Amino acid sequence: MHIYRLPVLSDNYVFVLHDPASNTAAVVDPAVAEPVLDKLEELGANLVAIFNTHHHGDHVGGNNALIKKFPDAIVYGGEKDRDRIPHQQVFLKGGDRVTFGDHAAEVFFVPGHTYAHIAYYFPAVGDQGGELFCGDTLFAGGCGRLFEGTPAQMLESLNQLRQLPDDTRVWCAHEYTLGNLKFALTVDGENPDLQERMVTATAMRQRGESTVPSTIGLEKRTNPFVRWDAPAIQRSAGIDIPDRVFARIRGQKDNFAG
């Protein structure tokens, strides 16, 4: 399975999955349709699936145009997003599985950013690590704002994701990394892995490179929202109760000017 990362809008990423054996494609969170259609034309591939993580417009905005062009494509989303995702046909819950070509993905229910958010995890094949498409739940160096969920829900959602193998690639839906790392340094500034990541990410962005994908292992070492139980984060929060630590640093991030 080949993964193509398409930058769209101001900071979104859309992901096109291509199965060369069948020359079929799937798309994850198509904010807009045009770049996806261009990539499909370039590949000469037939779109068979749209995998939505949640209902926000910058994740489903391309559904209508894609279905108009590929009316047989199946639209997937969370069961609690019923009537919120255009053309949704399959209503998924945590523990379900979806297939694309010869690949099968596990569905994670990861509320917090929204109450219906899901993620798709394709396990490792051979020497290639797994692939996680997590929408706006887990970001490189951060996590999504809590628009519909609670801190406890988001903490549990991120705890599920941090159990995945360290070499799992994290395909998050926005290029927010530098801002996230700037905040992370305010609560975990003595972390040498975080310091190194900031230098690396800054250089990448200066070269016009994407910082996505990340990996679960890198997030576990450097992302304060995955490290809420690390002593340094608890000291910064001034408390050691996990959901209250998480709530405090999430509130700080919401008010962080950067």
Automatic annotation (TrEMBL):
Q: Where does Zn(2+) 2 bind?
A: D58, H59, D136, H174
Superkingdom, taxonomy of origin:
Bacteria
> What EC number(s) has UniProt assigned to this enzyme?
3.1.2.6
What keywords sit in the KW lines?
Hydrolase, Metal-binding, Zinc
Question: What are the BP-aspect GO terms?
Answer: methylglyoxal catabolic process to D-lactate via S-lactoyl-glutathione
Query: NCBIfam families attached here?
Result: GSH_gloB
The identity of this protein, by name, is Hydroxyacylglutathione hydrolase
Organism listed in the record: Pseudanabaena catenata USMAC16
Name of the gene this protein is made from: gloB
